[in-house]
Amino acid sequence: MRADCSLHRQLQPAACLGVLVLLASSVAPRAQETIALDTITVGGQRPVSTPVGLDAYRTPGDAPGGLTRAVTSGGILGSKRVVDTPFSVTGFTDKLIRDQQAQVATDILRNDASVTVQNTLGSFADQLYIRGFEVALTDRLYDGAQVGYLNKFALEGIQRIEVLKGSSAVLFGVSTSQGIGGIINFVPKRALPFDYTSVTASYVAPGYVGTNVDVSRRGGERDEFGLRFNGAFNDGTLYSGTSLRHELAQINLDYAPSDRVRLYADFVYAANFNDRDQLPFTLLPGVPVPRAIRADRNYAQRWNYTDNPGSLGYVRAEVDLSDAWTLSAHYRHSFFGNNYFAVIPTIGDATGHYSLFPFRINSHIEGDGGQLNLRGRFDTGFLRHEASVGVDVENDRIFTSTPAFGEPLASSLFNPVYYPRPDLQTGSARLSNDTLVRTGYATDLITLPGGAVQILGGVRYVDILSANVDTALGTSTARTSQDRAVPLAALLLHPTPDTLLYASYAQGFQRGSIAPANAVNANAALPPIPSEQVEAGAKAEFAGLIATVAAFRIERSLEYVDAATQRFVQSGLQVHSGLEASLAGEVSPGVRLLASVMALDPVAQRTGDPLTDGRVPIGVPRFQSSLYGEVDLPFERGLTLTGGLYYVGSQYVDLLNTQRIPAWARVDLGLRYRRQLDPTTLATLRLGVENAADHRYYASAASGLGLGAPRTFKVALQVEW
User: Fold this and answer.
1) Where is the signal peptide (predicted)?
2) What element of type H or E holds 654?
3) Which pLDDT tens digit goes with each residue over 688-703?
4) Ramachandran region of residue 144, left (φ > 0), alpha (ψ -120 to 50) or beta?
5) 690-718: buried (b, 16+ CB within 10 Å) or exposed (e) per residue?
6) What is the pLDDT of residues 196-216, one digit of tens each?
7) CA–CA distance from 313 to each of 254, 264, 270, 388, 700 (Å)?
8) Cβ distance 1 to 423 under 8 Å?
9) Which of 122, 356, 360, 636 would you call most buried, defined as having the most Cβ atoms within 10 angstroms of its Cβ?
10) Which stretch of DSSP H or E encloses residue 109?
11) What pLDDT sits at residue 345?
């Protein structure tokens, strides 16, 4: 019998969502200036003609071709064109999410070469790395707001995914984890300016089926009320033999009582239930890396499971105090459950024999947070200012049961042995960590006469209070309290309105990581750590394309499980110097391209051990590339051929650099056919095959060795009206 997953916590959000659906269904610039991002104008006239299908409606801010964004979030700076931001950012659109049949965020984020992906669809979590640094669960934002811990964002309700690279402490708030490499911002769908309904049926071989419903409505005398509902249910068996059930109910409401006031309320229930999901395995020191097995050969025990129920409530208000000043505030409450009965395989020899360490644990995270922000424009003499001031408060509480561990078991990657389920009992989850982050910030973007030169300056004061709690005794075992002011500075030069040269410097201050389950100090929170980044780059928008190039250097404390003591520690520095470039857009009518590369020089310094000083950190590839393209075939209207080529360089498994996984490349192919069934109805059939060559590989070594997905067929049929 599985542990109680707080059923009332799961049912309450779903019930509220159902009531809201029933209620709502009855309601029939210049280059350097701030640009409204995906703002749906309410209280005005609807379009004279309603587009057939979302592809006929170009969302404001999408780049030519519709694969990426020309306008993305600049955090407390507001929305900005990509060519006006002094940091690297990529925005992937809802169109790309649908056309690539993305089930999880990792399916989309592999289109950015600066992002390393470890896990696949059947994994219990999306493990991501930007510029070689982990993007922890708390470094994933919802509509620009930190939402605590959400293991996987359900993509059915997401309008776009933004990848913001480098230190983001000043612009987006202090990461409650280790997001020095960057953050991921999930922007939700909101009501369209016209009525819209979509139903999608999907299939992932060999037996994972699902359906998704997307409904948008507006009502009121001025269309001032908006509703967007997304519901999804997927269930079945994946290639590995893992059984996965995915549930989603999401409502996004907006209301504009006047032209100067905008209100938003979002309610999300999302859950994933995995059986026989495979955790990445570890290697004993000195053991050669065994060859990668087929990912459809499941080495997990039949009694493995992971349950991840989650819910989110989010409200936001924006008030235009004048034409130049806007006051905004938001509040969120989130709940995320993480209950699992699993094994951690540890490889003991080159033939793939390993020890299994069964363990069971129940945990959940509750979080609250809010922000108050004032942003506006003003002039001082010949200088123009875009300023922002505000405060953030985030409180996340981790509840964990006392882990139960079983006797070690023996098995093999190439000939798995399956055992009866051990009798492991664990109690209810109790408070194990309580962290409060309070910040105050101010930024100013100064534009000199003519608009060709801009200077950005900002500072954020950070106060982090964290306490580890003994779950058995309920007493505090360790408290940390640190505060720091972190600065941001950038110089922007615009040779033309559509080009940018920039240089920036930023510091970060992050809460230390939580020790992993395989460390002797598991679940302990390490002290906060500083970081810094220097970046210089160039951007240009031309002929339907957006091109970017950036050079960067990032320093932060090195965190790892010490091989000798098995303790998760902070020791030394992790320094990443790199170069990245991207090109995206419409090359010619009917031909669309999304390409990027990253070359990285990662090194560990001042570790206190001459054997590890100067070595490459664990799980960091030196080179990655990503190429995706679409071609509309001329002989049949609505028929499109798609394809992707993804390459990730070799990675070290240990800090001594004696164990390494090889580089790998993957080819994806796809075909899409759109046909208008009647004047108001559009049908789209999408066919895809991932890893078409059926290559066996390790996707990453950053958090253990994770197997890449085998050849996988996908089919989806969408009908829109």
Assistant:
1) 1-31
2) none
3) 999 999 999 998 888 7
4) left
5) bbbeeeebbbbbbbbbbbbbbbbebebeb
6) 999 999 999 999 999 999 999
7) 14, 11, 12, 25, 34
8) no
9) 122
10) helix 105-109
11) 85
Instruction: Give the phi and the psi of residue 54 in degrees, each rounded to 5.
Output: -65, -30
Q: Which two tokens stand for residue 288?
A: 């050669």
- Least Cα distance to 715 among 211, 233, 249, 237 occurs for 211
Half-sphere exposure of 346 (CA within 13 A, CB side): 10
Q: Which residues contact 630 (CB under 8 A, 6 or more apart)?
A: 65, 67, 99, 591, 592, 640, 641, 642
Three-class secondary structure of residue 611 per DSSP = coil
d(CA 299, CA 178): 31
**For residue 244, what are its two tokens?**
């996965």
How is residue 219 written in tokens? 């009502």
Integer Cα distance of 375 and 385 in angstroms: 10
- What single letter denotes the amino acid at residue 537? G
- Backbone angles phi and psi of 236, in degrees to 5: 145, -165
Question: Is this prediction's pTM over 0.90?
Answer: no
* Residue-wise DSSP of 271-321: EEEEESPPPPBEE-TTPPPPPPPPTTS--S-TT-EEEEEEEEEEEEEEEES
The CA distance from 126 to 150, in Å, is 10
Question: Token pair 């991207």 is at which residue?
Answer: 582
Tell which residue, 519, 437, 520, 532, has the closest CA to residue 480: 437
Distance (Å, rounded) from C-alpha 489 to C-alpha 534?
Answer: 10
- By DSSP bridging, strand 261-275 and strand 305-320 are antiparallel
Considering only CA atoms, which of 524, 500, 499, 497 is closest in space to residue 513? 524
Strand 404-405 and strand 664-678: pairing? unpaired
Q: Which of 16, 28, 85, 705 is nearest to 445 (CA)?
A: 85
Helices (H), 168-247: 169-172
The CA-atom distances, in angstroms, between 368 and each of 255, 335, 371, 634 are 23, 9, 11, 53
**Distance between CA atoms of residues 496 and 619, nearest Å:** 40
Please, are residues 55 and 21 in contact by the beta-carbon 8 Å criterion? no
Stretch (H or E) spanning 96: helix 94-99
| C-alpha dist (Å) from residue 29 to 435, 491, 525 | 42, 21, 46
pLDDT, one tens digit per residue, over 418-440 is 999 999 988 888 898 888 989 89
CA dist., res. 172 & res. 75, Å (int): 5
CB 336 within 8 A of CB 148: yes
Query: CB–CB of 103/126 below 8 Å?
Result: no
C-alpha distances out from residue 269 to 236, 395, 543, Å: 20, 20, 42
| Helix then strand then coil, % of the chain, to nearest 5 | 5, 55, 35
Report the C-alpha gap between 497 and 454 in whole angstroms.
12
Write out the two tokens for 327: 């006051």
- The contacts of residue 425 (CB under 8 Å, 6+ apart) are 360, 404
Query: Taking residues 153-163, what's their average pLDDT?
Result: 89
Q: H/E element holding 442?
A: strand 430-447
Close Cβ partners of 652 (under 8 Å, ≥ 6 residues apart):
615, 616, 617, 618, 619, 620, 659, 660, 701
Please check the confidence at residue 149 and state whether its pLDDT lies above 60.
no
Per the model's pLDDT, the better-predicted residue between 253 and 57 turns out to be 253
Which tokens is 210 given? 């699902």
User: 112: Cβ–Cβ under 8 A, 6 or more apart, which residues?
Assistant: 90, 92, 163, 582, 596, 626
pLDDT for residue 31: 34
**In this structure, are residues 463 and 392 in contact, taking their beta carbons and an 8 Å threshold?**
no
Pairing verdict, β 305-320 and 353-380: unpaired
